[in-house]
Specification:
By secondary structure, this protein is an all-alpha fold. It has one domain: MetI-like fold (Orthogonal Bundle). The protein is built from 14 helices and no strands. Helix 5 packs antiparallel against helix 11. The two termini are about 45 Å apart. It comes from Achromobacter kerstersii.
């Protein structure tokens, strides 16, 4: 029996993960819009030395509280400093700090969650320790650590990371407990496979999707916490621009020069909105249960 030429052709290889991810982003308007907005804001902050024509800390008393002009595109603050330069540099500081906090929280929470979920003897004491840390309000813990350790990048990152680690650890632990009961994992354990190999091959890949989504929420929370600390006067020193401190400094002059508060406030709101919307869309895409609900 002769075969047709079409059936004799080899099957096309499945699309790569990068192509699947790009296709998912293109066909999801919420994910695409939030990602483009986030990339735009990040590009503006990364290009701050090129886009900002003034030193963010340069004082020009004669130009104080000026509106938008050819020299100062977004106006100046109460000390005559260029608002565009300060917002861009402040946004870059917030994004850098959020990335470091997200990295530390994800790595530490992953290690703790894997240990607690896989080693049953560690589960109860480790989770009670995580519950104790979660019982402390994150903002108050950050305020206390900054007051004791000083307002520097290391103290700020550690202070904001500690409250996020238990949330990541509990998420990873729940994934490990569910995957550990799978037949293929039990068969691998029963065959004498070392624990580290089981974790690396079978359990760790199942935690990647939840961790990617959780990282976006940690970033948004870190940006907001840093802004709150700066607004309360507990953030970085005044010579280092941050979005929270810029809003706090412009609050007394809001009726005369509202742009001092509105410009950094809108930038901060757009940044947090873009990160949260991207995280929500990513969660809907990576969670098969939510995908089935949206399709039905």
């Amino acid at each position: 029996m002769s075969t047709s030429p079409a059936s004799a052709l080899p099957a096309a290889p499945p699309p790569s993960r990068w192509r699947q991810a790009a296709s998912a982003v293109i066909h999801d308007p919420v994910m695409l819009g939030s990602l483009l907005l986030l990339l735009l804001l990040v590009a503006l902050t990364v290009g701050a030395p090129l886009l900002a024509s003034h030193d963010p800390g340069a004082l020009t008393p004669r130009a104080r509280l000026q509106g938008s002009s050819d020299v100062y595109w977004l106006g100046t603050d109460s000390l005559g400093r260029d608002l565009l330069s300060r917002v861009l540099y402040g946004g870059r500081l917030s994004i850098t700090l959020a990335a470091l906090v997200s990295l530390i929280a994800i790595v530490a929470g992953l290690v703790i969650g894997l240990a607690a979920g896989y080693v049953r003897r560690l589960d109860a004491p480790v989770m009670r320790l995580m519950d104790g840390i979660m019982a402390i309000p994150g903002l108050l813990l950050a305020v206390a650590m900054v007051a004791l350790g000083g307002a520097n990048i290391v103290t700020m990152v550690i202070a904001i990371s500690i409250p996020e680690i238990p949330r990541v650890a509990r998420l990873v632990r729940s994934v490990v407990l569910s995957v550990r009961e799978e037949p293929y994992v039990e068969a691998s354990i029963g065959s004498g496979t070392p624990a580290l190999k089981v974790l690396w091959r079978h359990i760790l890949p199942s935690t990647i999707n939840p961790l990617v989504v959780q990282a976006t929420f940690v970033c948004a929370a870190a940006i907001l916490t840093e802004a709150v600390l700066g607004f309360l006067g507990l953030g970085f020193p005044p010579e280092i621009p941050s979005l929270g401190s810029i809003i706090a400094e412009g609050r007394p002059f809001f009726q005369r020069a509202p742009w001092i508060v509105l410009v950094p406030g809108v930038f901060l709101a757009l940044l947090i909105l873009a990160v949260n919307m991207f995280g929500d869309a990513l969660r809907d895409r990576l969670d098969p249960r939510l995908s089935r609900k949206t399709k039905s």
